[in-house]
Every structure is written in C-alpha cells, then in structure tokens.
Amino acid sequence: MPLKYLKERLDEEQFKKIEKIKNEELYNFIERYIEVCNPSKVFIVTDSEDDELYVRNRAIIYQEERLLNTPGHTVHFDNYYDQARDKEHTFVLTPTCEELPYIRTKKRDEGLKEIHDLLIDIMEGKEMFILFFSLGPKNSEFMVPAVQITDSAYIAHSELMLYRKAYGVFVENPDLEFLKFVHSEGELDERKTSKNLDKRRIMIDLMGNTAYAVNTQYAGNTIGLKKPAFRLTINKALEEGWLSEHMFLMGVNGPNGRVSYFTGAFPSMCGKTSTCMIVGERLVGDDLSFIKDINGEARAVNVEYGVFGIIQGVNKDDDPYIWNVLHSPHEIIFSNVLVHEGKPYWNDMGEEIPCEGENHSGRWWCGKKDREGNEIPPSHKNARFTARLKYFPNLDAEALDAKEGVKLSGIIYGGRDSDTWPPVCEAFNWQHGVVTKGASIESETTAATLGKEGVRKYNIMSILDFLSVHIGDYLENYLKFGKKLKNPPKIFAVNYFLRGEKGEWLNSKLDKKIWLKWMDLRVHGEVDAIETPIGYLPKYEDLARLFKEVLNREYSKEDYEKQFTIRVPKLLEKIERIRKIYEDIAFVPKEVFKELDEEEKRLKEAKKKYGDYISPFKFY
Q1: Is 425 a catalytic residue?
Q2: pTM exceeding the 0.85 threshold for the entire prediction
Q3: Where are the domains of the chain?
C-alpha cells in the first residue's frame, strides 16, 4: 500500500500534507521515486508562504544560490559545460523508436531502463522536494496540473517563481490527472554544480506523461514545467485538438481604450522579448501560450507566471522595464552572470564591467581562457534571470489570471532576415498564414552568436527544438484548428532585420511599435491594405500617420519603398528552400505544397508584369 510506505518514509508533518490529497496515482508516483532515488529527507511544498520560504532558504544553505547585495537577489552557477539544453542526450521515448523528423527518439523501454538505472540511490544523503503546479490559470479549461520531484532547491525555488502553485487544487480535486517530472542534479562538485555530465540524460516519455532529467542543473533541462513540459503539452494538444505554442502573449493598446491581444513566435535573437516588453503595451507572457477553441473563438493564456529570460544585451535604453526590475529589491535569481563585490554584471549591459570576479567558470579575470583555449566572457551568452511577472509595470494582470483566456486577434511570426521578408505583412487567410508565414520561418545566424554569419536556419513556428510529434501531424492539427473557428485570428509576419544595398538597417528598433499599431487597426478593419503576391502590406499614408502619432517622426515615401519592395528573386529562392524541406518529410499535409505553389505562381506573374524588384506603389 503506497500510503503505508509513505507514512514510513515521511515525517509526520510531511505525511499529513500528502494524506490530504486523495489521489492513488500521486501516491504511486511519489512512492516509486522515493524508493528508487532514496533521499534522506522529503519535503512536500504546499501553497503556503512558509513552505516557499523554506525552499528559498534551503537553496542558500545548500549553496546552490548565493546572496547578492540587493535584498532578494541571489546568483546561481551551473557547471561550465552545463550551460544550455543538451540536445544530444535529450530523447523522446516512443514504443518502437520510429524516426521523427528533427527529433531524437529512443525506444521507450530502453530509455526508461537507462534513466531509472541512473536514478538508483541518486538522492542518498540529500533532500527531495515535491511540488504541485498548474500550467495555465488554475481551475480553468486551460489548466494542466503537474507534479515536480527534484533534489535541487534552486530548481524548486525557480519553479515557485515561474508557475502557479496548485497544491490546493490537488487537495480539492481527488483523482486529478497530472503531468509528472523527475529531476536529480546528481553528484555535485566543490562549487555545488552537477559533476557527472557524461551521464546527463533528459527523457520525454509521452505515453507516461512524464519527463526525466538527471545529472544536470541547467534550467532549460531541469525546470520540468518549462521545456520538458512543453514537449508533453505539444503532444497533448495534438491529441485533443488545440495548440501549445512557443509564443509570447501581449495586448496592443488601440484607439478609445481598446486592447487587441496577439501571440508571437520568434526564434532566439529575433526580437521576441523586445516585442512583448515594448514600452506602452501590455505584457501577458514572454514565452509559452496555450490556444484553445472556446465557442468558436481562439482564446489564449500564458502557461507561466514568471519570466526566465536571457540577460545578455539587456540595457537601460532598450529594455527599461526589464532593467528596472533587475535593479529593484525584488526576488530575482541571476544565473551564470559575473559577480563582483556582490553585484551582478552581464555582457552588453551598457555599463563598464569589472575585470575580475566570479562567474560560471569560477574565479574570472579579463582574458581568462577555458581548457579549449576559448576566451571566457564576463557572463555566459545564455546567462539568465528569473523573476515573477507581477514585478513588471506593463503587466496586464487581469489577462494573466483570466480563466477564460483572452480573445486572440492575431498571431505574429518573426525571423531574422536581411534581404527577403518586408517589415510587416498580413496573410490572406489562416491556411496561407500557417504555411507561408509560420511554417516558413527562417532565421539568419549572427556572427556574434554562432561564428558564421548569414546562415539561414529553418524553424517551423519557432518550435523545432521542442517538437515531440511528427511535423506533418503538427501542421495538420494547426490547419484543422483554424477551420473550426468562426473568425480565425489574422496571421502576420514581421522582420526587424531588413538591410539596404549598403548593408544598413532599414528600420530602427522602435519601428516595431508601428507594425503592432497597424496590426491592431487591421484586425478591426479600420485601415485598408494593398494586396501583393505574398499578402497584404500597409499603405504608405497609414504608416506615415502612425509614425507621426506614435513616434513623432516623419516617415518618407523613400523609406517606405525601400522597406516594402517585393523582392521577387529572394522570395522565390525562399519558397524553393522551404518546399525542399517539406518534400523530404513524409506525411506533410497537401495544403503546404498548395500554398507554396500558389504563392510562387503569383510572384512569377508579378515579375512578368513589373520586374524583379517591385515597388509597393505598383500594387495601389
């Protein structure tokens, strides 16, 4: 009997917490991993502030976090070689290990045996934390309950900041179905970072609705409710006919107090955070969204309750909201930054950075090199901050907590593209947008991040790294979802990185605010647009008025023409690249090729009429 076993292994106070939840599946889950991992102590985290404080204090006592000068601020370091998602050792477990495009799979029984062998006695002498959460608003149609088991107080602390606590939901709802997460950081070195990285494994068991992470601390591998849960919910959404997406959720303020809500999917370094954090608009979430059909409307929620954000490049001028949060006495976890005399520093912060301190490599000084001979920067390029959403002054708190979600007016797809897509374009309809905007995202690499500039990386819906299902099935579900809706959200593509003939940027960083304002007007039918082979583009006079009203700037016809020229050769090259990708994948919906073929035909007809590079004024 699981309850009898738990009574033997838990102290009286912790057992009483578990006994309140009448859920046999939960008892079996906890019993199994106490028995396998063999912790010396177990702590059940309820929704109480006292339990949360206990976890925060444990993170300090166990030296997984250290106090900084500003009250509430702590720093965490991961192992120097444990700084990102471990793609090589992350597997989706399937019964037969069938091949899935872009996904590493492993036979389910082999993967489960491997991970459980690694888990045997891994928590001996350590404390196990068991936490209860809700992905999406609690007690709503969107809610996905989840239970996390971990021996890392840092991971437990992070999740308490990032997700909605839901112990009470489990107490009130016997026999609740839930996602399961098991994590152990494994043996630690003298800096309290995961030591056995050769045995680092992340397994996603779709059949068991369980994700495992072992011998790693990096949050992208170990915060179960983030990217491991994302893979589970992508599969769940496919089975149930809704969308689990790698998208921000934000409100754009329109005329007369109106708010229009948009989700947006952008690959890394393409403007995702800067868009949803833009001054003057409403932040709901920066990373993950659930989208469901409720009475024929697409409605969306933020899966999370906090922000786990990349800190590199955050500066006072471009990111005033984030900057203020990071310099206020809020509860913030900095990870893998430079610490000098109790203060955190990070790359490209717009302030002078000391030439000594401690970072993810240990004691650091300017010019220090790693064992491969690479110079170590002050902070890791993937250094992060963890903060609660409630700290942000532009938070739309009502939308964050709305149990029915918010009505979605539009979906935005972005990429980093120097020579092809215009700054903003509206798709003709749902199917056209899904295929030629979302399923055709490419992002150019930058010299700063990957060493080789201008390589175009395909990234369907900015979800490629997290897919747990076949791309064809994922697209089929997406297309069907839109067909069920009475009035599907409009689909837009944006590109903030267009360059001119001399390599100059054709837009300023603030121009994205104009594209958002134009989208708001379009979804309410308040401005016309010009019809082009790739979709609807803004009219010059509408943009000129918005630039003047919103940014108090003149906007010239010359700038408009440069930005919104239809670059036919580049667009045809892109179609060919995307078509080739989908031709090499089995079971892709026929609508994908139909939309690509039709867009190609429209572009070739326009080329015959107007030439290779077509001014937007030609379509007036």
Answers
A1: no
A2: yes
A3: 2-64+87-240, 244-305+397-619, 308-390
